[in-house]
Amino acid sequence: MTQTDKQYDLGQLKNIASQVRRDIVRMVHACQSGHPGGSLGCTDVVVSLYFELMKIEEEKEENGFLKFSREGRGEDLFFLSNGHISPLFYSVLARRGYFGMEELSTFRKINSRLQGHPATHEGLPGIRIASGSLGQGLSVAAGAAYAKKLRGEDRKVYVLMGDGEQQEGQIWEAVQFAAHHRLDNLIAIIDWNGQQIDGPTETVMSNKDLGAKYQAFGWETVKLANGNDMQLTVYALKEAGEKAGQGRPVVVLMKTEMGFGVDYMMGTHKWHGAAPNDEQLEVALLQLPATFGDY
Amino acid sequence: MKKYSFTEKKDTRSGFGAGMAELGKTNPNVVALCADLVASLKLDAFIKNDPQRFVQCGIAEANMIGVAAGLALSGYIPYATTFANFGSSRVYDQIRQSVAYSGTNVKIAVSHAGLTLGEDGATHQILEDIAMMRAMPEMTVINPCDFNQTKAATIAIADYDGPVYLRFGRPTVPVFTDPDQPFEIGKAWLVNEGADVSIFATGHLVWEAILAGEILAQEGIDAEIINLHTIKPLDEQAILQSARKTGCVVTAEEHQLNGGLGDAVCQVLSRHLPTPVEMIGVNNSFGESGTPAELMKKYGLDAATIVKAAKKVIQKRK
């Protein structure tokens, strides 16, 4: 394994995020389905993880794509629990070099490896577990973190969840499990955008003080006031990394704006699971500079 | 009728525990998870051998399945253990998404399946789990018949790379199979060769089928008895070969008639060799409290019922 020698500067991370956001709106437009809102809101944190924070295998296959092993020994791992923001995941994986960018155009279409929700079933490199039915990712990540502990590996396991997803009972089973087993190599990130399909989380099923709940279970917490500010996001993830390794799992409470980067998708839950039409796509793309070229 | 005898009775869950104890010493990748039922699952020896490879999950089965999936994708061979009810119906979606669809190498090993859990009653007596697990793509379903076969199956599935649902029980039952038997997933075991009627049985009903075979033999009926320990993938060749010879079939299982072994056998027969079948199982009802023996008798899961069914189905033979 070769340590990544390429350290991206802030401007570079922002440029990647802009291109990923373009990919997201183009992908959901092309198939007229999918979940742009949460994908756009979480773009900065997932880009930060894959292009700055995480140590991943940099060696390449003969075809030029990154070598991918599901086990990920010696690597930091990322799990997406709120699988509906798959367009973001796919774009980042393609841009990071796991598979060809042209494949993004197959998203949600028949015979594609880019299923509506992430799946291992079609063998898409970069995906380690299926997700979509909510509430399961934290348990899987805890299992992977446990495995790294068993092997004496000094790498981290990240998992991204939704705030609506915190309503699932299994989440709290996993929260108590991770604290009990002192999985301090586990870093959970909650996308606290305050929106879910039926409306604002406060009115659907209030989360109240998530941080206090995690603390009461024995977790370390890191607050990220604006998960759509790339610099703050990188800082918060680094802070989480520093708090790891001290006997407690860490959760990053990340405030984001659903639909961030596309003005008409922000401040509403209406774009949670709806695709833009041709006109709306044009408006969105005008707001998102093509920094690396479209797929 | 081939003679089967036993010198002792043991619970199949202890066969699982013995298998795990052996795996603990022979396969460093095997880890065990349990949801607060260590003594019931007979995991003490495994844990004593290497406490590091045991993961206590508490009374939180959904999380246990996810943790097992995470361990499996990291290269371990996790056995997620609890009662059959809590390892199937309670966590079906977790198994579906994080195990079967994701192709993680998780062994769901569950005890106290069926009526013979006994006094705890219907809340705990799962009789639908074979149907659920059979319906799930990519899932292998195994229901061994005694201590030795359960031990052999427990060890054998570690060498198979894929999800498995291994179902066993609580009561002590005769130990009548070979302690050194090879266990091949999906390969039926011909318990007794016969010509007049085929009895396909699984789990605790295999011994009852042997008892039934002895009674039938006294009446001049030559029963073929086949142990279908693997319900999925099903040994279609063995079923067809036997049904072709005898021309009539009895199925027997400690499970609902809907969706169980009987349905699986009928599916094979109706497609390839339509044959009269009598099915023995629980008929669209929940269980209740009682001793295992009382329950098996009341719900007609015993040798006497198999004998009756065999005579009935022979009459239907063309």
Summary of the model, kept short:
The complex is a heterodimer of chains A (295) and B (318). Chain A has helices at residues 10-31, 36-41, 43-53, 86-96, 137-151, 169-180, 201-204, 210-217, 230-243, 278-286, and strands spanning 77-80, 157-162, 186-192, 195-196, 199-200, 220-224, 250-255.
Task: Output the keywords.
heterodimer, A: 295 residues, alpha/beta, Rossmann fold, 10 helices, 11% strand, B: 318 residues, 5-stranded mixed β-sheet, 11 helices, 14 strands, globular
Structural class of chain A: alpha/beta
Uncertain regions spanning at least 5 consecutive residues of chain B: none
Order of helices and strands of chain A: HHHEHHEHEEEHHEHEH
The largest β sheet of chain B comes out as:
7 strands, mixed
What is the CATH C level class of the largest domain in chain B, in words?
Alpha Beta
Gyration radius of chain A, in Å: 18 Å
Give the beta-strand count of chain A: 7
Specify the biggest β-sheet of chain A. 5 strands, parallel
What is the number of strand segments of chain B? Answer: 14
Say what the CATH topology of the largest domain in chain B is. Rossmann fold
Which strand order spans the largest sheet of chain A, edge to edge or round the barrel? 1-2-3-7-6
The CATH H-level homologous superfamily of the largest domain in chain B: Thiamin diphosphate (ThDP)-binding fold, Pyr/PP domains
CATH architectural type of chain A: 3-Layer(aba) Sandwich
Oligomer: heterodimer
State the strand order across the main sheet of chain B. Answer: 3-2-4-5-7-6-12
What is the mean pLDDT of chain B? 98
Describe this structure in words.
The complex is a heterodimer of chains A (295) and B (318). With 295 residues, chain A is an alpha/beta fold. Chain A contains ten helices and seven strands. In chain A, helix 1 crosses helix 4 and helix 3 packs across helix 9. Chain B has two domains: 9-174, Thiamin diphosphate (ThDP)-binding fold, Pyr/PP domains (Rossmann fold, 3-Layer(aba) Sandwich), CATH 3.40.50.970; 189-316, Rossmann fold. Chain B has helices spanning 12-26, 44-49, 61-73, 92-101, 129-135, 147-156, 205-218, 236-246, 261-272, 292-298, 303-316; strands at 9-11, 30-34, 54-56, 77-83, 107-111, 140-142, 164-167, 172-174, 189-192, 197-201, 223-227, 230-232, 249-256, 277-282. In chain B, helix 1 (12-26) packs parallel to helix 6 (147-156), helix 3 (61-73) packs parallel to helix 4 (92-101) and helix 7 crosses helix 11 (303-316). The model of chain B has no long low-confidence stretch (mean pLDDT 98). At the A-B interface, helix 5 and helix 6 of A face helix 3 and helix 4 of B.
